[in-house]
Amino acid sequence: MAFFAHQIRRGFSSSAVRNVVIKQVTIIGGGQMGAGIAQVAASTGHSVTLVDTSDDILKKSIKTIEGSLKRVVKKKFADKPEAGEEFIQKVLKNVSTSTDAGSAVKSSDLVLEAIVENLKIKQDLFSRLDKLAPAHTIFASNTSSLPISDISSTTNRLDRFGGLHFFNPVPMMKLVEVIGTSSTSQETFDSLLNFSKVLGKTPVSCKDTPGFIVNRLFVPYLYEAVRLYERGHGSKEDIDIAMKLGVGYPMGPFELSDYIGLDTIKFIMDGWREMDPDNTLFAPSELMDKLVAEGKLGKKTGEGFYKYK
Ligand SMILES: C[C@H](O)CC(=O)SCCNC(=O)CCNC(=O)[C@H](O)C(C)(C)COP(=O)(O)OP(=O)(O)OC[C@H]1O[C@@H](n2cnc3c(N)ncnc32)[C@H](O)[C@@H]1OP(=O)(O)O
Ligand SMILES: NC(=O)c1ccc[n+]([C@@H]2O[C@H](COP(=O)([O-])OP(=O)(O)OC[C@H]3O[C@@H](n4cnc5c(N)ncnc54)[C@H](O)[C@@H]3O)[C@@H](O)[C@H]2O)c1
Asked: Which residue windows are transmembrane per the record (predicted)?
């Protein structure tokens, strides 16, 4: 009876009664997050195909992975540089690239999407891949803020669909939020939890609620820092110093917003405000709107709250 109730809660489906051991991974989107996830998956022995829209972007993704691996081995193989170089080559061998997502998913146990934060584009991608991936393949999204149940709604594998939310920079941040919708099967959820552990991360279980755990607490904090600055209650520099030295955060809110990307943070907040316009935690910021409109998105464009050129 308990088993049955449990299956109903997670959405039982006969096609999902076993745990999938994830070996072959397709990651769609080779940007900040996709490249980082590919690196960590390849470093832990998975066979990874990284997919993006052009070979030029993918070349950049591999360069990013290489650069990050060099930082990792500098520590891990401090006394054995040759073993470090060997490790890098071994990891890079585990990563192949493709601009053809349809072919890449055909031999995948997991398809993890880290493309642009846009519901329609994510839905279209998964709807197309749903028809091409094997039945056992689990689909997951790395979305920061969109409901997983909205992204999965265009597929016929609701029981094999969940969220895997990584943190930036992926090689350094230990947390993964594993998100189950009301339709995600227990087997899929367990496979995603287990995959996160095999990557060397610590997973936490989340409901499919706005911002899951971290972003629901964290994004209003980033916005309040900007509003505090707009009210003239402190300089950007002092607010950053205060949060680093006062509560031990590794980066202040302005440094971190620039690091994540102001477009990403604004997109998250705009979406929540649309859902709940009277919630003062979701109030807009004129400065944030202005910077994003000017294309000053943070580190990735050379300027955000601070200049990086
Ligand atoms: C919005 C989304 O949905 C959710 C999110 O992702 S929210 C964002 C979450 N991320 C954070 O909060 C990041 C907060 N910042 C930090 O933890 C740290 O500042 C940081 C790890 C990014 C960098 O650390 P910091 O001490 O400031 O700088 P730095 O000295 O360059 O790096 C520290 C170590 O990390 C390593 N490192 C940093 N980035 C790395 C990367 N991308 N790859 C590999 N190694 C990296 C460095 O090599 C260095 O190693 P060392 O200690 O052996 O020298
Ligand atoms: N930046 C962060 O700190 C962070 C943290 C956690 C989660 N996320 C989420 O991860 C996702 C990716 O964010 P990012 O910061 O890596 O973005 P990014 O802009 O760095 O990378 C996105 C990549 O996806 C590619 N892409 C776009 N549409 C595609 C398609 N249809 N097929 C294949 N590739 C496509 C782009 O060319 C680009 O290389 C977003 O959903 C974001 O909300 C971001």
From this structure: none
